[in-house]
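Title: Request for sanity check on NADH-ubiquinone oxidoreductase chain 3 prediction

Description:
We are preparing a figure and want to confirm that the structure record we downloaded matches what your pipeline produces today. Could someone re-run it with the sequence below and paste the raw structure tokens into this thread? We only need the token string, no images.
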Amino acid sequence: MMENIMVNSGLVVLLYMLMIKVSSKPSVKLEMASPFECGFNSKKSNRIPFSLHFFLIALIFLIFDVELMLILPFPLLWKWNMNPLDWYIILLLFFVMLILGLWYEWQQGALNWDT
């Protein structure tokens, strides 16, 4: 029974790999992939300006959002046979690291929007 499952699994994987190989597009030559420039010059700029400051603020928001996801399961984990003082120390170290990171970003001026 087990050998049958393994053989069937192997056949499915081989069939899948064969289908990928058969259905893949042929490789594109360098000349075909390079842009061909003709016609008139565009009146608009093709590049949209991007604010690096906005990116930094979004990154800081993402870090604190992930931090919230890591902290929310802690009450569920308190059911384990671990000393509650150990949990408080772990959470305290986690918060201290985040606050130190936020303080560093503030000192570097990453949170000032007007610069």
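Thanks, this matches our download. The chain has five helices and no strands.
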